[in-house]
Amino acid sequence: MTRFAWHPKFGIYQKYCVVIVDGTIAIPESFSFDQAATLPLAYLTAALGLYTSMQLPLPLDAAGKVTPSITGETLLVWGGSSSVGALAVQLGVISGFRVISTASPRNFEYVKSLGAEKVLDYRDADIVDQIKALAPGLRYAYDAISENGSIEATFSALDHPAAEVVLVLPFSGAVPGSTRTHYNLAGGIYGPGHEAALSSLIPLWDALMRQGKVIPNPVKVMPNGLNSIDEGFDLMRQGKVSGVKLVYHPQETRI
Ligand SMILES: NC(=O)c1ccc[n+]([C@@H]2O[C@H](COP(=O)([O-])OP(=O)(O)OC[C@H]3O[C@@H](n4cnc5c(N)ncnc54)[C@H](OP(=O)(O)O)[C@@H]3O)[C@@H](O)[C@H]2O)c1
């Protein structure tokens, strides 16, 4: 048998691909395919960090109803306007956290619409002090950016003897003694040894979608399918992808 992901039929950049059935859910009628396409990577990255790495309780009751499971805690989501950050904000709120986040001012209202109580400008020189004033004794953080100083700023904002932060990129720098860091590759969930994560996070995703709890990322559909991939990467390199997910229709590629 071909190992998962070693054969092109499992790959992306194509209209149809083969997936393992335990890793899929039905798309509710209320979602377009473009909207649904924004969710798997962002959802799994956010959910793995919160529920598998941090081992927070799933926000699901015994009957499968989405129900908050955390009380009296604040979650900092650094980069709430990114695709992963938008899902971390939403999952944090759904779990019962009071969520505070960072973004550019043009995306403040967007991140608030996802449920964040307060959104701060990450470019402010006193950003750490602003977070500390809003969330003294902060224990939990999700750094959805994990570069350009966000990790160090997040460490500085935490103030708890058992602080925990999820990172989305590998980090080899110094970690404060009181802080535990977590890092996962979302795609790893489909590999051997991750059956437990898959069997809890996929039913949660299904429940969230069916019960109308998840807002997909705003979508920007790129023209001419795969012909626009380079343009999309250029936009990302230039920091021009802000609060949206680029979506490509491979079947529209001009050969
Ligand atoms: N570990 C995994 O499995 C995994 C999976 C998926 C993604 N990732 C990683 O997660 C990161 C985010 O990916 P994504 O697809 O969610 O990104 P994205 O949506 O393309 O990110 C764009 C957003 O990032 C925000 N941003 C950029 N620099 C920031 C900073 N210093 N502080 C706060 N916000 C900042 C921008 O906010 P404003 O426009 O508001 O300024 C923009 O809205 C990437 O590094 C990606 O490689 C990891």
Automatic annotation (TrEMBL):
One of its GO terms (molecular function) is oxidoreductase activity, acting on NAD(P)H. Residues 84-166 form the Alcohol dehydrogenase-like C-terminal domain. InterPro entries: ADH-like_C, NAD(P)-bd_dom_sf, Trans-enoyl_RdTase-like. Pfam families: ADH_zinc_N. CDD domains: enoyl_reductase_like. PANTHER family: HYPOTHETICAL OXIDOREDUCTASE (EUROFUNG) (PTHR45348), ZINC-TYPE ALCOHOL DEHYDROGENASE-LIKE PROTEIN C2E1P3.01 (PTHR45348:SF2). This is NAD(P)-binding protein. The lineage of its organism: Eukaryota, Fungi, Dikarya, Basidiomycota, Agaricomycotina.
